[in-house]
Amino acid sequence: MKRKIVALNLVLAAVVAFAGVQLRNQWRAARNRERAVLAAPSVKPPQVPPYIPLPGSEPALSASYNNIVQKDLLDPSRNPNVVIEVVPPPPPPPMPALPRYHGQMNLDGVTAILSDNANAPQRSVHLGEQIGEFKLVDVSTEELVFQWNGQTVRKRIEELSDRSEPGSNVPVRSAMQAPPPPVPVIKTPLGPGEMMPQGFRVCNPNDSTPDGAVVDGFRKVSYSTPFGSACRWDPIGK
């Protein structure tokens, strides 16, 4: 039994010695290869050629593709010029006939005696009041200034004066023909009108508010003029 153990130990020792020899031989061969590589002359890297940029592309011009646009088969007209139709604005409405001028007075503020036309009744119109489609803005001894449709209309008094003979435009009625009944005027309590630069407010036409009434801090005051009665709204306390 002891002989077998001794023989096994001898075999194992031989195997270890052989493996050690082989390992040493491989280590020495690796050292030799490393020395050979390090001793070899160094390889120079190839020389890099200088950088040459590519030529830039030219910008596209409209003249270069104009021929393609002119022969565009997708457009029946083959016309690249688009025609924009401009619709003209509608013409402004015609200005109606201006009121007729019959006189003026300056008792407590400038008042013009006007009528809608030659056959319409005369009435006193203060600054800022409306007569027909026109608004009286200014009155002087030479001209009248109206406002209509956002426009300022200036006319000389000679152009607005009615120089026709009295009664020339009134149709002649027979003695047996009765005059037509007057059209009733519907009055409603409208209150003060537009504020004037003098500090008072004008009376609205067909205003049924009684004299002396107070509305929005203004009192209605009626007074007589050579052309009839008139009214205005004075601020309370003045």
How many strands? 12
**Proportion of residues in β-strands:** 25-35%
Helicity range of the residues? 10-25%
Number of helices: 3
Q: Order of helices and strands, N to C?
A: HHEEEEEEEHEEEEE
Structural class category: alpha+beta
Shape: elongated
Question: pLDDT average, as an integer?
Answer: 80
Taking the sheet with the most strands, its summary is:
5 strands, antiparallel
The rounded Rg comes to 57 Å
Can you walk through the features of this model?
With 238 residues, the chain is of the alpha+beta class. Among the domains are: 96-163, SH3 type barrels, CATH 2.30.30; 188-238, no CATH class. Helices cover 20% and strands 26% of the residues. It is built from 3 helices and 12 strands, in the order H-H-E-E-E-E-E-E-E-H-E-E-E-E-E. It has a 5-stranded antiparallel β-sheet with strand order 8-9-12-11-10, with no helix packed on it. A hairpin with a 2-residue loop joins strand 11 (218-225) and strand 12 (228-235). The radius of gyration is 57 Å and the shape is elongated.
Features:
20% helix, alpha+beta, 5-stranded antiparallel β-sheet, elongated, 4-stranded antiparallel β-sheet, SH3 type barrels, 3 helices, 238 residues
